[in-house]
Amino acid sequence: MTNKFLIAASAAVLSLVTPRLVHADDAKTRAAEGQIQKALADEGAAHRLFADAQRQKVQAHKDAAAATILIQKAYKQRAAAKKDAKQAAADQAEADSLDQMAKDDAARASADDKYATSENSAAVEEKAFADADSAAAAARHAAKTHADNKATEDLAKAVADQASAEEAATKASNDAKAAAAAKAAANDELAKAQGDINAGSYKGDKGAAERVQKAENDLVKAHHDEEGALVNRAKARHDYAAASKRVADAYNAVAAAEHDAKAAAADKRAAEEAGKVATADAQRADLAEAAANAARDQAAHFEKVAQNATAAADATAAAAANHQNASNADFAHAYQLRAQAAHAAAKAQEDSWKAEQKLSEARRARANALRDLRASY
Q: Where are the beta strands (DSSP E) in the chain?
């Protein structure tokens, strides 16, 4: 009697400390794993679309820098005419401030180029992870049993947090899209106003100067709005990278909990690839922050550019009232080129947002599929 009691008690204790093995609902498991693989493939495609859009933005920044140099040249030439002392001084001040603006455009092009490269790197690493994850799924099927433990729950939570961070990045990208569109519209108005004030007429220059001021003020706001959006994107990228690290850690725990040697080895390999993805995501987050910092620097410097441009327009209008103003037909063309670059940047940002949307949808689909996978065990 005593022996029977001891055997029963020992069995009860073992049931508490031994991980429970469960047999999966094979059809539901395979369906969920298929959804995960599709989501991972969709994520990779979205990464590549985003990288392409970022490179379009790089070219737009380079075109803006070239246009800024032409605008600066026009201001210098108008200042050299010295038909009115105040106008000449204001023109030279704006020419000087445009030096930094061209440098800022070049800095943003470089930052966006590095960020685009990081997106391609993330796509490569996620493809390797997708392949390893698929192999791990096949190994688990062959094993027929799975450890029912906290690690799978942690993995699902980490992937869900990735999806939430991606949704935050998509919102930030949408805000950046709105700011880029506002910059394009303001640049259009500025080009028209600068063309009018440099038409060589003495009529309407005061009204054109007021339009210059409004357009410049709109550009200041748009620059700061864009800066804020990119700062939020960088935060979302850091949050995503932190969740990626948790995915790798959870996958390691899943591997440790496996009771089949082959399944454990396959999970370990997937965990290694997840670690590489986490490293790529951390680097991407740092580069997103660098791009945000470049935008912040440009927004701060642009305030001086806008202030000097408004002063130069006012000085030109005042000189025109005395028929002493200098004008330069090159202004209209140079400002039009900058407006074209702004429209190209807006289109690139819209394409970036569309890619972010696809990425966000794929992330959420993977999170939902992981939830379904756990439910099938």
A: 20-23, 145-148
**Are 200 and 327 spatial neighbours (Cβ–Cβ below 8 Å)?**
yes
Residue 117: strand, helix, or coil? helix
- E-strand spans in 144-223? 145-148
Residues 244/275, Cβ–Cβ less than 8 Å: no
The phi, psi pair for 322, rounded to 5°, reads -105, 10
Neighbour tally for 290: CB within 10 Å: 17
Alpha helices, H only, 258-329: 261-321
Cα R_g (the chain), whole angstroms: 29
Beta bridge partners of 146: 22
Query: Beta partners for 23?
Result: 145
pTM of the full predicted structure?
A: 0.87
Q: Are 116 and 55 in contact (CB under 8 A)?
A: yes
**Cα distance between residue 30 and residue 43, in whole Å:** 20
Q: Is the pLDDT of residue 8 over 60?
A: no
Query: Is pLDDT above 60 for 359?
Result: yes
SS3 (DSSP) at 58 = helix
For 141-153, what is each residue's pLDDT tens digit?
Answer: 777 655 556 778 8
| Token couple for 175 | 């805000």
Position 372 scores a pLDDT of 84
State how far the Cα of 305 lies from the Cα of 188, in Å rounded to an integer: 17
Phi/psi at 61 (nearest 5 deg)? -65, -40
> Each residue of 303-322: pLDDT tens digit?
999 999 999 999 998 888 88
